[in-house]
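Researcher: Next entry in the queue.
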Amino acid sequence: MMFPAASWWTLLALSISITGSPVEVRNSRIILPMTSGLHFSNGTNPVQRDDVRLIDVTLDNAYVFSSVTIGVGGHLRTISYRLIVNTASAITWIGANKRYRPFSNTWFPISITYPYSEYFFAGTLCTDTVEITDGNAVDDMTIGGATETRGVAPFDGMLGMGPRSLSRGLIPTQPERTLETVTERLFMQGSISQPLVGLFFKPSMDSVNLDNGRLVFGDQDPGFNIGNIAYTPRTSRMPASDYWGIDQSIEYGDTEILPLTSGIVDSGMTFIFIASDAYEVYKRVTGAYPDPRTGMLSISLRQYNALLPLEFHISGQTYKLSPNGQIWPRQLNYMIQGIEDGIYLVIKSLDKPTGHGIDFCLGYAFLQRFYSVFDAFSASPRVGFATTPYTNAFTN
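Model: Structure for this entry, 396 residues:
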């Protein structure tokens, strides 16, 4: 498994100069409605999609998506685009479904192949106005204009929420240069009071959920009724440190599942992935068995009733994933070729043992239970988590 930084969701904004003049903050936050749910695509189920993305192994008509609608063009030529939100990306590009005509002169051609996903983008770098909401636009933003794409339909492109380090190596003539992100630009021009971006989800209960999430730039929204946010520094271990990587350990009851190690937070993943040796321990303590129909771990109703919380220990805080949070929504079993009353676990294996630099991936199954915050601009980048009204919800 490889995670080269320069090739994973890699680009974003134009560098600008900062003067000593104070910046007037117009808003403390900007909130975008976010559509999050399960989406049929290319005949693959979520198990297939994540496995292809992570370990290049095909198993067996859907995947989790989170998308927002933004405008590009500015003034009288603004066009709305529906973009996939991804925290493992520093790229904003458009043109996959709805055609994009660059307003400015293009810089140079680029192409990006994402090594552990089906996504592909080829096109040009250019500058344009990106309108997040009415009255909150970023001028002269460097984005990608697509001429060829794969795996993105029916969406129009990607909105990258990853750290700017992911853009290193994008410009061949300036291999060490990094490009500013949307979050940074909004903060630097005074549109938001803090350089933070947060993700708030409600657990998916049907195949397509409308407006069941929020993408928050700046301060958190008190209306979300979340707990206190606890932050952890971004890990220093490569290659997780190029992403929103953190250090954590995992326990189940009195059993250590995964020792303290590094991994990533990725809203584009459906499941929670852990190293293969940790996966074997989890399988043993839960009594789960591999289900050949779905490629997932399965348990009986009696085993589910005895299931304990899965504890994620992050910088002195413990986040407990409830038994209900550990299983696939049973009303959606048909989407993974499961039986109607089957109980399937959302913990999956990376198919590589601990010690490879990315030993876990916290995907949507985790993020729909905990509010997540990404500090994109501080001297010491960090990731925060908090409980929500849905942390212990019985939805699956």
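Model: The CA atoms of residues 27 and 138 lie 14 Å apart.
Researcher: Noted, moving on.
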